[in-house]
Amino acid sequence: MMTAITNALRQRLTLFPSVASANATSTNSAQSTDITSYYHNHVAAITGAGSGIGRELACHLASLGCHLALSDIDAEQLAKTQEMLIGYDSKVMTTVLDVSDKEAVDAWADSVMATYDKVNFIFNNAGVAMYSTVEGSSISELEWVMDINFWGVIYGTKAFLPLIKNSVKESETNAAIDNGHVINISSLFGLTAQPSQSAYNASKFAVRGFTESLRQELDIQRCGVSATCIHPGGIKTNIANNARGNDSLSELGMRSGSKAIKNFNKFLRFDAKDAAWIILQAAATNQRRCLIGNDAKMMDTVQRLFPNHYSTVLYRAHKLSRKIKPSRRAQTSATKSTTTA
Predict the structure, then answer these.
(1) Which of 88, 200, 310, 315 is catalytic?
(2) Which residue has the higher pLDDT, 251 or 327?
């Protein structure tokens, strides 16, 4: 569904070239910046480092000479990430961690300080997904999503922010002052709401509001630490395969179970390695908000242009794309027949 909407919107948004140009200019400018000095010989903590964006962040940062504190709830996948970092001039510590456990997150932050004597970046990346109607979701399912996606971000930010501030402050006596940054992963679904995604939407909108407020506070404090909110579109990760859901989607005419996961995976097209690099560029260039992928950029544009009616616009775009597909198939078939003849 999301891919179909994106294709239809791509045609419609040609009416707004200035918006598309601004997005492209911002992205290209960020990607051309040399960020090595921003991360070299610093310490970065990453949640959800066992796969996807978290793993790719670790690989990029290691190549930049940044020391790492990696965590994930999956010990086996975390170990695989650690193996991928062998050979880099970067120290690596790993911790099996459930980000919804506040005491465990606090203990992890303390262990990072005990190991490196400083910490400069926290990437609150761990997240889960769930598909269900509002009525069909149980309180425990909603709590599962919020505990990881939102409270995990809060626990990570609260545990590491004072340590990051102190690390930056103590570096002021050195020739080179350390950098400090909080990077929180929201989502395309932290920009627009979608049916069947009420829990995920709630968690990612909450991350967005929390991070934007934090950014304003840090700007006022001028403490040498900043914050960036990341809004990825469809990134190739395991989030769809690990998602939970139920049959309540049938009430919306949507598929559930393995078919829902298959459809979800079709939406995940953007390479996680490229996404991770864009995130690192965004933090190093101190962007307030970072949109990753054309789908995120276009959905954000539609929401800005039609704040009260974007859901209607997206629905009509979806219907339009469904009409376009059969005609394209017919054209392709006709072309093949002509070629064969």
Answers:
(1) 200
(2) 251
